[in-house]
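Blinded run. Sample ID left blank on purpose so nobody reads anything into the name before looking at the predicted structure. Input follows.
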Amino acid sequence: MKAIIIEDELPSARRLERLLQDFEIEILEKLNSVKASVLWFQKNKQPDLIFLDVQLSDGLCFEIFNQVKITSKIIFTTAFSNYSIKAFDYNSVSYLLKPINKEKLKEAILKAKKVQQKEIDFEQFRKLVSNYKSYNYKKSFTIRVGKKIKIINSDNIACFYSFENATFLNTSNGNYIINNSLTSLESDLDSKKFFRVNRTFIVRKDFIKEIIAHSNSRLKLILISYSETEIIVSRERVKDFKSWIN
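Blinded prediction complete.
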């Protein structure tokens, strides 16, 4: 089978590609955005299978269907485990939760080889997009300060970061440890307001004070309330960051 991977996280795309080497699937291309995907489909024959991330760097994957008629079989990939992702099953071959399990991947591929292709119902996708956009992003976090418990509104958080196997959030009042991992936070936070710039930091757009050119085509961020360590946008995330910031 011939396939493409549409995934905005380069490490996730590479990992999936490595896993697929054991299943005799030829990867034609790896794409990371709605825009890049639409351009690719306009110029190329559609593959047998698409591994499609739900949340891309420039919007929800469903926006692709508004511009291109997809005839390939689809396997959705997503980190949104707390969303009713089973709704995707009506038209997709299957869905896979990140991090992708090899056995689950095998099951999805076997299913893809057996099932007949279905005509995509654009009205159903439109409704699904509407429901998806109403997803209830996390608006506050509970932290413990001594014997007290405080509630911090996400609008007051400049960034989240990991340090020594722990995750912290930063506000103008200081840094606080939380139980969430950065990976889980990516699916819980509004992607229009928060962006994961590297393995260590997720930043909020409203708190970015300066963006400075850095070495190796990277960017350095200065936040309003955080100054403990440098925040560098990784080279593979710079293009997506520029799209997000605009």
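Unblinding after everyone has recorded impressions. The radius of gyration is 19 Å.
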